[in-house]
Design goal:
By secondary structure, the chain is α+β, with helices and mostly antiparallel strands. The protein contains six helices and 13 strands. Helix 2 packs parallel to helix 5. The relative contact order is 0.12.
């Protein structure tokens, strides 16, 4: 059975030497953060107690899809007061999980959000929406990480499987993730964030301009207008949803 490491106990190393992070390490969140802070120029996350250090990022498999999805989500956040978002942000979920999702969106605490920024500057608690860019269905994004997000109450989880040319958008219902339907046009519509419409067909062919055009009707919809009204009431201390 693997041992969970609390601190460095190597008797041959000086006490002030912090071991570097390596993929496959099994660590507590506290020890993960200690090593991460002492290891410059890497990106890493802790999922179910296991360290994953990010390898080199390829353009077509990650960089370009990431940019397009960030643009889509950023447009939504800009049009929806009371929402906030981040790119590659470490999130303190629980004692065994500190993922660094590609994209997340959360409600501000004033609007009833599940997460908040703690005194160390970390986002703590589950954001309402998380998105990851994955190579294929074999990725841990659809296995251990999915389970960690589900168990911690991330309400919607989107995975863009680039090599498979597929999108998996899960919504949390009664403790289980269920897939949101894809319309014949290729649109997927968020339930948690009304008006967040993703044109998967446009994104798969790399047409960011068309994807942005497909988002506009969502932002102009009655459901988005009502959602913004309710968030404003919450932020002002008015009638709760």
């Amino acid at each position: 059975m693997a041992t969970i490491v609390e601190t460095s106990t190597n008797p041959s190393s000086p006490p002030d030497v912090v071991p570097p992070l390596a993929s496959g390490d099994r660590l507590t969140r506290a020890e993960f953060e200690r090593r991460y802070e002492a290891t410059p120029n890497i990106n890493a996350e802790l999922v179910e107690g296991v360290v994953y250090v990010q390898a080199a990022v390829r353009y077509r498999q990650h960089g370009s899809p990431h940019m397009m999805l960030v643009t889509m989500v950023g447009n939504y956040v800009a049009a929806t007061p009371g929402t906030e978002g981040g790119d590659n942000t470490s999130i303190r979920l629980d004692a065994d999980n500190e993922p660094q999702p590609d994209i997340h969106v959360h409600l501000s605490p004033q609007c009833g959000g599940q997460s908040q920024v703690d005194e160390d500057g970390y986002l703590t608690g589950p954001p309402e929406f998380v998105a990851e860019i994955a190579a294929s269905s074999a990725s841990y994004d659809l296995h251990d990480k999915l389970n960690a997000y589900r168990r911690n109450g991330v309400k919607e989880y989107l995975v863009w499987r680039v090599l498979d040319k597929e999108f998996d958008w899960f919504v949390l219902r009664e403790g289980r993730y269920e897939r949101l339907p894809v319309e014949e046009t290729g649109l997927i519509k968020s339930e948690v964030f009304p008006g967040l419409w993703l044109d998967t067909a446009a994104l798969l062919r790399g047409d960011l301009a068309a994807a942005i055009e497909s988002l506009k009707p969502g932002l102009e919809s009655e459901t988005h207008t009502e959602f913004c009204r309710l968030l404003k009431e919450k932020s002002e201390g008015g009638t709760e949803t």
